[in-house]
């Protein structure tokens, strides 16, 4: 077999191995249905009859997991053009500049992405209407290693269910907004994240968290 034919065969096998898992395609479509506003058309490729979901914008699959979705990267990069970390470019009304933010709510259909390791939804308006706390069901994504929900206009208590994410290395729940609407009255759930290396709770109200010294001391 010639080298060219061998390379073509390998490419075909790799492509086939990354074919979209039907259940996960449905989960992504359900997530898209929860997005009520997409002014920049960032999810334009996410449609029924839209081909392999592994090729959709922001979606990454892995042939090591037989084509399962392992990463969902939907960060609103336009908002971060003027800053880094917890900073973002806001217009004079306090909204994200650039008009690319997704609007809506985070669908529990994401729980069907059982191999998901990386979830970045930062700097979008995915807090629901009226604004809700970060979804407790995200604590069911057992394989998650990276979770970035920074800059989402959540309101309410951070759910301790996030402490179920025992594989988590990176967690960002910081916010660009004022006043502090997201809060945590207890932080003991952080002690259940033995692999955590990065934690950002900037602008989260911790004034009623009496256990924070112990929680911080137990972090790796």
TrEMBL record:
Coiled coil: none annotated. The keyword Repeat applies. It is found in: Membrane. Its main location: membrane. Residues 1-19 form the signal peptide. PROSITE patterns: PROKAR_LIPOPROTEIN. It is a single-pass type I membrane protein. This is Leucine-rich repeat-containing N-terminal plant-type domain-containing protein. The lineage of its organism: Eukaryota, Viridiplantae, Streptophyta, Embryophyta, Tracheophyta.
